[in-house]
Write a structure and sequence with these properties.
The protein is an alpha+beta fold. 63% of the residues lie in helices and 12% in strands. The two termini are 22 Å apart. InterPro entries: PhoU (IPR028366), PhoU-like_sf (IPR038078), PhoU_dom (IPR026022), SpoVT-AbrB_dom (IPR007159). This is PhoU domain-containing protein.
Length: 331
């Protein structure tokens, strides 16, 4: 760490010199323009750069299916504006996978193709993205998926179950967008100014989005199990609905705490959400006891449903922990 003494020039202007090694490494010299980004009691300084798209290239030789999909998503979340995927010859299967992956990411489009490369570009401006709105939307979709998954199970509705599975893609798209913005805010202070979030708040939103994405994943798992099960006995169905209601209550209260502007209100709601996790655990034990009297195969699948609902409640508890940290006094 280097230190500099603040000088006063002209009687009213504070000046401080820049470390020469840093200036040289970042292309800063006499006449260069730098940007200052205030963040609480800190002041971040960066060189002003021309508005350039961040480009990245990835060799996808030998990548197929899920590996190729993950590669595209990783490049997107990492913050590249233009992504070039190249190989000696890109197969038709690889092109289909790339297009499918692109459709699952907010703002990403195919802008060019040859036999040796496919070029993608993020067409959205960071200032147009609202992390708050994305997380709020994730909350609605994830909790609705969970409710519909349980309804599909107890009512033996295969069409509703299939619809829940498809909606998981919507939550994933929003989560990847939040992850992209979060990493950009960490890397570039100017992005924080564009999206209106400081780094701590961006971290809190990203943590929250991760828990909601997991809730949606478990809603999808419940729906998949519903497609293999007949409607459960009435007593079990009633317990599953009660368990669902308790888990969603944790999530909703935790999200209210997360989005509350008043720190005292946020703390109260978050603590209530954390305490409500115990209600979920008690209902899990009651429901598991009912499953002992069922056919072993049915009991096993319903046990997975109970586990998913239990985990959904736990994820709500994790959101509550984040809300408590967000509401706590800043050191």
């Amino acid at each position: 760490m280097e230190t500099r003494k603040v000088q006063v020039t002209g009687g009213s202007t504070y000046t401080v010199s820049l470390p020469k090694d840093w200036a040289t490494a970042n292309g800063v010299s006499g006449g260069s323009v730098v940007e200052f980004h205030p963040e609480d009691d800190a002041l971040l300084l960066t060189p002003r750069r021309d508005e350039e798209k961040v480009e990245g290239t990835l060799d996808i030789t030998g990548l197929e299916g899920d590996q190729l999909t993950r590669a595209v998503m990783t490049m997107y979340v990492s913050g590249f504006d233009i992504i070039t995927l190249e190989a000696p010859r890109i197969s038709a299967g690889q092109r289909r996978t790339i297009r499918d992956a692109t459709q699952g990411l907010v703002g990403l489009e195919v802008i060019g193709e040859t036999s040796e490369h496919v070029q993608l570009q993020d067409l959205l401006d960071s200032s147009e993205l609202s992390v708050h709105n994305a997380v709020t939307r994730m909350r609605l979709v994830a909790t609705t998926m969970l409710a519909d998954a349980v309804d599909a199970l107890v009512e033996n509705d295969a069409d509703l179950a299939a619809d829940v599975v498809q909606r998981d893609d919507d939550v994933n798209r929003l989560y990847y967008m939040v992850s992209r913005v979060f990493r950009s805010v960490l890397r570039d202070p100017s992005t924080a100014a564009e999206v209106g979030l400081d780094r701590e708040t961006a971290f809190d939103y990203h943590s929250c989005a991760r828990q909601l994405e997991r809730v949606a994943d478990h809603a999808s798992k419940i729906a998949q199990n519903a497609q293999e099960l007949d409607a459960p006995p009435e007593a079990v169905a009633d317990e599953l609905r009660s368990l669902h209601d308790a888990a969603v209550a944790v999530i909703e209260r935790a999200m209210d705490a997360m989005l509350a502007e008043d720190s005292d209100e946020a703390t109260r709601l978050a603590n209530e959400a954390r305490q409500s996790v115990d209600d979920v655990d008690a209902l899990v034990r009651e429901t598991d006891a009912l499953l002992l009297d069922l056919d072993p195969q049915e009991a096993q699948l319903l046990g997975l449903v109970v586990d998913s609902l239990s985990r959904a409640g736990d994820y709500g508890g994790n959101i509550a922990e984040t809300a408590l940290q967000k509401a706590a006094p800043k050191p």
